[in-house]
Design brief:
The chain has a single domain, classed as Glutaredoxin, CATH 3.40.30. The chain contains four helices and seven strands. Strands 2-1-3-4-5-6-7 form a seven-stranded mixed β-sheet, with helices on both faces. Strand 3 and strand 4 form a beta hairpin. It starts with a helix and ends with a strand. The relative contact order is 0.14. Keywords: Signal. This is Metal-binding protein. It comes from Azonexus hydrophilus.
Length: 154
Amino acid sequence: MANIERRRLLLASLALGLPGLALAAPAKVLVEVWKSPYCGCCKDWIAHLESQGFAVRAHEVGDLDGARRQLGMPERYASCHTAKVGGYLLEGHVPAADIRRLLAGKPKAIGLAVPGMPVGSPGMDGPAYGGRRDPYDVLLVQGDGKAAVFASYR
């Protein structure tokens, strides 16, 4: 009996001393963001993602339209930043919950877009907007450039 308890104690102490075992936190999903260095709402959207458990790497670019084009998001869905996560593109102020739903569902698509900069969307919802919330849709952008409503916020 003492040998079994000694073995359990030894295994427990080894587990606690070795990095990367069961006690380690799961890796955060990385979102890469291409944005203007001068855009405050982009920083607020990044803060939203980080507060929801995503890791974010920002790339400040002078030609956001060029970056968007190179990444493959159709211009008609343009907003103030473009991002990439899990093989998908994100355009604009997409809520973290919709990003999680996209990654879980794995639809065949380019990604999600919130065209323009609707007040009340993540990053466009601070005190400067006085609590105003405009209705907006999150669009699932297909490979052919067409889109369907993925989520609606009213």
